[in-house]
Amino acid sequence: MYETTYHRPSTLAEAASLFSGASEARFLAGGQTLLPTMKQRLAAPTDLIDLSRLAELKGIEVTADAVTIGAGTTHATVATSAEVARAIPALAKLAGLVGDPAVRHLGTLGGSLANNDPAADYPAAVLGLGATVHTTKRSIAAEEYFQGLFTTALEEGEIITRVSFPIPARADYQKFRHPASRYALTAVFAAQMKDGSIRVAVTGAGSDGVFRAEAIEAALAANPTPSALDGVSIDPAGMLADIHGSAAYRANLVTVMAKRAVGGWAG
Fold it and tell me: What Enzyme Commission number does this protein have (predicted)?
């Protein structure tokens, strides 16, 4: 056994102070990844700083150009938000596909992005929409935020406060789920932005985590319909391979999910 001191700060400033004063602290958001990791003795923080009660990290704001969601907002709140469903239906859909009801009611946007699991859902929306991740120190563009498996641009003690998602002209999210874990074996978030540009982000398939499918984006830029992807193939060399699916299998799924996502633009 090991000793962990639990803290429940009332403000972000207090949370930051507690972190800086501890020898090996971890922030707790929804706990859907950290707590199981601690139970398996893969993490043993001296201090656990609970961010789940901070009002500063919660809430949804919709403007003409963006949907901004607090980092402490749960997946269930995003999934059932009428405002999100009107502005970016694909984002509400994605949130509703995260895990199971228990995970959706406890897990948070900020926790998911801070962990950056290679099969998580939200990274696809952040990269697929070119979102901005705001923290206690700065604002980070999506292209700079994700830096590999379980790796982000976050610095020690930096806390995600909110994420701003640009509102696209149309978008959809298609996910091929593992039947037990509900994680993405391969999932695609495809968007046509208001300026006409195409963004396609893939999660669950890449060996380095979430990535943009440039070949698919190029094909859709010329012809934004599912048929434009008939001759497009993804190189298996950059794909994950495990007991759930080979690299070639996942590479094929990228194109299949992309076709479905583009088909969903009309829905």
Answer: 1.2.7.4
Average pLDDT score over the chain: 93
pTM: 0.95
For residues 60 and 84, the answer to whether their CB atoms sit within 8 Å is yes
List the 139-141 sheet strands across, edge first: 60-62, 66-70, 160-166, 132-135, 139-141
Q: Specify the long-range contacts of residues 216-222, CB closer than 8 Å, at least 24 apart.
A: 216/190, 216/254, 216/255, 216/258, 220/190, 220/192, 220/262, 221/197
Hey, where are the domains in the chain? 5-50, 55-166, 170-266
- Count Cβ atoms below 10 Å from residue 174 Cβ, excluding itself: 25
The CB density around residue 164, as the number of other CB atoms within 10 Å, is: 19
Q: Are 123 and 203 in contact (CB under 8 A)?
A: yes
Output the pLDDT for position 207. 93
Integer angstrom CA distances of residue 146 from 24, 27, 131: 23, 19, 12
Contact 27, 15 (CB under 8 A): yes
Measured on CA atoms in the order 114, 165, 127, 94, is the torsion positive or negative?
A: positive
The whole-angstrom separation of Cα 223 and Cα 141 is 27
| Superfamily of 170-266 according to CATH | CO dehydrogenase flavoprotein, C-terminal domain (3.30.390.50)
pLDDT in tens, 155-199: 999 999 999 999 999 999 999 998 888 889 999 999 999 999 999
